[in-house]
Amino acid sequence: MPGPRPAAPAPAGGAGPQRRHGKPPRHLADLTPAERRAAVAGLGEPPFRAAQLSRHFFGRFTQRADEMTDLPRGSRDALAAALLPRLLTPQRELTCDGGTTRKTLWRLADGALVESVLMRYPDRVTMCVSSQAGCGMGCPFCATGQAGLTRNLSAAEIVAQVVAGARLLASGRVPGAAPRGRGGSAPAGAARISNVVFMGMGEPLANYASVVAAIRRLTDPLPEGMGISRRSVTVSTVGLVPAITRLAAERLPVTLAVSLHAPDDALRDTLVPVNRRWPVAEVLGAAWRYAAVTGRRVSVEYALIRDVNDQAWRAGLLGSLLAGHLAHVNLIPLNPTPGSAWTASRPQVQQEFARRLAAAGVPVTVRDTRGREIDGACGQLAARARP
Ligand code: SAH
Ligand code: SF4
Fold first, then answer.
1. CA-CA distance, 360 to 357, in Å (whole number)?
2. Smallest-distance ligand from the CA of 283
3. Each residue of 121-153: pLDDT tens digit?
4. Peptide bond preceding 223 in cis form (omega within 30 of 0)
5. Which residue's C-alpha comes closest to atom 6 of ligand 2?
6. Distance of alpha carbon 310 from alpha carbon 123, whole angstroms
7. What is the three-class DSSP state of 202?
8. Alpha carbon of 329 to ligand 1 centroid (Å)
9. Of the four listed, 79, 143, 196, 254, which is most buried by Cβ atoms within 10 Å?
10. How far apart are CA 121 and CA 101, in angstroms?
């Protein structure tokens, strides 16, 4: 196989050899509305305070007691301390694309590191979130995969990344992106997070319960949640078939993205090692059942790697597997990871790959490469921050 194999996964605790990773503190966003009322009652407060706290966090993006002026002075601090502990501390922030792309490296309470990226477009604002610190799936082209899994994030740690993005947007510090062709950037203005994609660090379906709970918090209407449309949430998976089947039954019609990267098992076994457990045919079978149950078009992710998976015959094979199904292909130019010999496909090869898919009747787009200069691809910033 061309290209290097990844180094052996680092031991758990990627942020430092002595660091212990543990359970994050309990937070309001880990709890259902009924559990929040019970927790508030347990602190000797009337249950309706749960909705007040929820509105502060999900609607006003604050967890500072001094900003909760509708709560009695005597209760604010205790309620905030018990239910709104600080989960994320910014460690580094990088911006590019005229300030419309912002990537944050967060330190969690136990020292683990995760990233989120906010991307503001003329018509939407997308938040790319991490679901795990690290990842155990070992895909050799992915910076996160090379470091191994540190731990699962809690639902609240996932939601808090989106709330932080919403707070940043509301602060007016993110300039609006000018419509294509106009040049420059539009002034900052009020905007909301419209889309959430689970394409940061981690395999979301390997942290199933927290990810589904986070989706409910993100999509439940205010004050229970942030009120983001379910259709605007995308869960990207390496293809954990039983979890895809389970997700289809949740009655959460979120968009499913399947990271395929190869149409044949021989190559996919090497690019996506979990393929040895659930091969291409099984992954696509689960994707089509997901599409049938939810009515949602499945997004097939395909990172084009020069001379590895970009041959015309593979485009043809991929086209024949997908034609006639509720799917579209998102071609991603590979973002090379430090130390790897792999790189993105040549432009003509990428174009030909897309042309062959389109000729087979499969809708295809090429993902924009926002955030390239700030190591926008999954895990790259955290990989650099590691000692
Ligand atoms: N674990 C999930 C979601 C996080 S990765 C998954 O694999 O789907 C999000 C997307 O980024 C996946 O499609 C993944 O294959 C892709 N990706 C990872 N490393 C990349 C790189 N170096 N260049 C381009 N895409 C990459
Ligand atoms: Fe994990 Fe996704 Fe990276 Fe594979 S591509 S190692 S599943 S984060």
1. 5
2. 1
3. 999 999 999 999 999 999 999 999 988 999 999
4. yes
5. 145
6. 32
7. coil
8. 14
9. 196
10. 9
Is residue 335 in contact with ligand 1, taking CB distance under 6 Å?
yes
Owner of token pair 């990871």: 337
Contacts for 43 with CB less than 8 Å, ≥ 6 apart: 78, 79, 82
Q: Of 22, 24, 25, which Cα lies nearest the Cα of 80?
A: 25
Residue 14: its pLDDT value, please? 38
pLDDT, tens digit (0-9, with 9 covering 90-100), for 201-243 = 999 999 999 999 999 999 999 999 999 999 999 999 999 999 9
Q: Please indicate whether residue 362, judged by its CB atom, sits closer than 6 Å to ligand 2.
A: no
Return the H-helix or E-strand segment holding 260.
Answer: none
145 lines ligand 2 (CB under 6 A): yes
Nearest residue CA, atom 4 of ligand 2? Answer: 139
What is d(CA 338, CA 361) in angstroms, rounded to the nearest whole number? 36
- Burial (CB < 10 A; 0-12, 13-18, 19+), residue 198, is buried
- Whole-number Cα distances in Å, 189 to 119, 123, 168, 178, 206: 14, 12, 11, 12, 37
Known catalytic residues are 115, 378
CA distance 283 to 124: 30
- Give residue 48 CA to ligand 2 midpoint distance, Å: 41
Return the best residue to mutate from 115, 199, 272 for the ligand 1 pocket (most ligand atoms within 8 A of CB): 199
Dihedral sign of CA atoms 151, 157, 162, 167 in order: negative
For residue 202, the ligand 1 atom closest to its alpha carbon is 1
Q: Six-digit token pair at 240?
A: 């954990």
Report CA(294)–ligand 1 centroid distance (Å).
24
The ligand that comes nearest to the alpha carbon of residue 200 is 1
Q: How far apart are CA 307 and CA 343, in angstroms?
A: 9
Q: Is 130 in the pocket of ligand 1 (CB under 6 A)?
A: no
203 lines ligand 2 (CB under 6 A): yes
**Cis? peptide before 6, omega within 30° of 0:** no
Q: Which amino acid is at 291?
A: A
Would you state the structure tokens that stand for residue 213, as one six-digit string? 């709970």
Q: What distance, in Å, lies between the first and last C-alpha atoms of the chain?
A: 30
Q: Is 233 within 8 Å of 220 (Cβ atoms)?
A: no
CA of 378 from ligand 1 middle (Å) equals 6
Would you say residue 379 has pLDDT above 60? no
